TrEMBL record:
<keyword id="KW-0464">Manganese</keyword>
<keyword id="KW-0645">Protease</keyword>
<dbReference type="Pfam" id="PF02789">
    <property type="entry name" value="Peptidase_M17_N"/>
</dbReference>
<feature type="binding site">
    <location>
        <position position="270"/>
    </location>
    <ligand>
        <name>Mn(2+) 2</name>
    </ligand>
</feature>
<protein>
    <recommendedName>
        <fullName>Probable cytosol aminopeptidase</fullName>
        <ecNumber>3.4.11.1</ecNumber>
        <ecNumber>3.4.11.10</ecNumber>
    </recommendedName>
</protein>
<feature type="binding site">
    <location>
        <position position="288"/>
    </location>
    <ligand>
        <name>Mn(2+) 2</name>
    </ligand>
</feature>
<keyword id="KW-0378">Hydrolase</keyword>
<feature type="binding site">
    <location>
        <position position="347"/>
    </location>
    <ligand>
        <name>Mn(2+) 1</name>
    </ligand>
</feature>
<feature type="binding site">
    <location>
        <position position="349"/>
    </location>
    <ligand>
        <name>Mn(2+) 2</name>
    </ligand>
</feature>
<dbReference type="InterPro" id="IPR023042">
    <property type="entry name" value="Peptidase_M17_leu_NH2_pept"/>
</dbReference>
<feature type="active site">
    <location>
        <position position="351"/>
    </location>
</feature>
<feature type="active site">
    <location>
        <position position="277"/>
    </location>
</feature>
<comment type="function">
    <text>Presumably involved in the processing and regular turnover of intracellular proteins. Catalyzes the removal of unsubstituted N-terminal amino acids from various peptides.</text>
</comment>
<feature type="binding site">
    <location>
        <position position="270"/>
    </location>
    <ligand>
        <name>Mn(2+) 1</name>
    </ligand>
</feature>
<feature type="binding site">
    <location>
        <position position="349"/>
    </location>
    <ligand>
        <name>Mn(2+) 1</name>
    </ligand>
</feature>
<dbReference type="Pfam" id="PF00883">
    <property type="entry name" value="Peptidase_M17"/>
</dbReference>
<dbReference type="InterPro" id="IPR043472">
    <property type="entry name" value="Macro_dom-like"/>
</dbReference>
């Protein structure tokens, strides 16, 4: 896919040349200077006349009409140089690749150094480029008869740089791995629930683990019964599909200590159960395994990059359905931890599944736990569709998750925890906890419920109900599943391993 070359001269490029352009560039120097003279000193005029724009996020195409070997030039507007960031680089490349895809280009040649600034070095730019390509051009292989027709795709990206070739090449590859892992998560989320049962999800995990020679464990219903996973099993009761507890271990250290537990909600379809959702609320509930997809995407990235860190991934998986055998409001169930739970709402099923998964992650030695879940509509009301809600019992761990999320450009924002909220989760006449204290602040109740099972283990909760999908397309992807948190979690693990 990528070829890195040194010693660029302007007529070496023969396909589509891509150049970054900052606003108010006083004089065109270096490659820009060469391009400008080849175009007969017309670049300044093109900018002035508005045919080429240096504004952030604007991609302008100029045909070279035989003046250069390259057939056309794509100028990528980058805005003000002093405001340019890693994130701007990534989204600008996203715009570029979308434009290339629309134009059905198969080969492009990028002058990498035209994107490099004091703050964003060649390695950063290469990472952003490598990541943006798979993210921005991702398309879910849907089930339309027409979409089986082959389409033209970008298959070759030549990267020209005067910086260290190996370093740039390595960064391109790392970025590409991040993008690919995220796309795997997107595909899982986009897959209809009739094609992705808990059993299918378990198969996917086994294939992933086998490919990278990772240890795995898939618990079936009987094993769960023996372990007393009454919370997850309650959710599964109404289903004809057997539940699965899916575990993958990645060992990056000599000893199985200092283990990060990544726990992802794997509800393959959420009807709400007897507390059934209104008909509009049912549409889209195939995405209720977005947390599972996020941790699987992260595991793929981790398995590729092999950081020196131990990770245990745990996914509790089932659908939440209705039948004569289904669990009901007023039921009391006993979780694996021994804590009993009064069911007040069968649509608050995610926290039940996650309760046993968190306990099981600790059982597998997790010293830190990060859970990811499409948990509540409440978080969408609170934070909208581009910010993931976070909660924690440990400042230091939260800081590290926050840093990772900032690095990859996936925003998170913390929700508060108070004793009053905690009391509500523990209020029940018949059990230790209840699964639905009310609509007021319910994103917080849901998170706190999971925290009851993390207990003293440092824990961060990420509610991705709003961020797991996007209703419209954006620079780094189409509408549909976003694959959110795969990159944050993989980065968290990578940075942990660097200590
Ligand atoms: N899976 C839903 C949350 C959800 C809503 C995800 C919208 C994605 C988009 C979750 O299981 C749920 O039903 N939550 C309820 C909780 C309530 C019953 C306390 C909710 O948010 O209404
Ligand atoms: Mn629900
Ligand atoms: Zn749900």
């Amino acid at each position: 896919m990528f070829t890195v070359k040194n010693n660029f001269s302007v007529n070496e490029a023969s396909t589509t040349l891509v150049v970054g352009l900052f606003e108010k560039t006083a004089s065109f120097e270096g490659i820009l200077g060469d391009v400008n003279s080849a175009l007969g000193d017309s670049l300044a005029t093109l900018v002035k006349e508005g045919d080429v724009s240096a504004k952030k996020g604007v991609v302008s195409k100029v045909h070279t009409l035989g003046k250069l070997e390259a057939k056309r030039i794509y100028f990528v507007g980058l805005g003000k140089e002093n405001q340019f960031s890693f994130e701007t680089a990534r989204s600008s490349f996203g715009k570029l690749f979308k434009a290339c895809k629309n134009a059905k280009l198969e080969e492009i040649e990028i002058v990498l150094d035209s994107f490099v600034t004091d703050k964003v070095d060649a390695s950063d730019v290469a990472h952003a480029l490598g990541e943006a390509l798979p993210l921005a051009t991702y398309k879910f292989a849907d089930y339309k008869q027409k979409s089986n027709e082959p389409t033209k795709e970008i298959s070759s990206v030549v990267v020209y740089t005067e910086q260290d070739k190996e370093e740039v090449d390595a960064s391109l590859t790392v970025g590409y791995i991040y993008g690919k892992g995220t796309n795997s998560a997107r595909t899982l989320v986009n897959t209809p629930a009739n094609m992705l049962t808990a059993t299918d999800l378990a198969h996917y995990a086994v294939e992933l683990a086998t490919k990278y020679e990772l240890e795995y464990e898939i618990l079936d219903k009987e094993e769960m019964e023996n372990l007393g996973m009454g919370a997850l099993l309650a959710v599964n009761k109404g289903s004809v599909e057997p539940p699965k507890m899916i575990v993958i271990k990645y060992q990056g250290k000599d000893e199985w200590t200092d283990v990060i537990g990544l726990v992802g909600k794997g509800i393959t379809y959420d009807s709400g159960g007897y507390s059934i959702k209104p008909k509009d609320g049912l549409v889209g509930m195939k995405t209720d395994m977005g947390g599972a997809a996020a941790v699987l995407g992260a595991m793929e990235i981790i398995a590729e990059l092999k950081p020196e860190q131990n990770v245990v991934m745990v996914i509790p998986s089932t659908d939440n359905m209705i039948s004569g055998n289904a669990f009901k409001p007023d039921d009391v169930v006993t979780s694996m931890s021994g804590k009993t739970i009064e069911i007040l709402n069968t649509d608050a099923e995610g926290r039940l599944a996650l309760a046993d998964a968190v306990t099981y992650a600790k059982h597998h030695g997790a010293n830190y736990i990060v859970d990811v879940a499409t948990l509540t509509g409440g978080v969408i009301i609170a934070l909208g569709n581009h910010i993931t809600g976070a909660m924690t019992n440990n400042e230091a761990l939260f800081e590290r998750v926050l840093e990772a999320s900032n690095e990859v450009g996936e925003m998170i924002w913390r929700l508060p925890i108070t004793d009053k909220f905690k009391e509500r989760v523990r209020k029940s006449n018949v059990a230790d906890l209840n699964n639905s204290p009310g609509r007021d602040g319910h994103a917080i109740f849901a998170g706190l419920f999971i925290g009851e099972f993390a207990e003293e283990t440092p824990w961060v909760h990420l509610d991705i109900a709003g961020t797991a999908t996007s209703s419209s397309e954006y620079d780094l992807g189409p509408s549909g599943a976003t694959g959110v948190m795969s990159r944050t979690l993989a980065t968290l693990v990578e940075r942990f391993g660097e200590e």
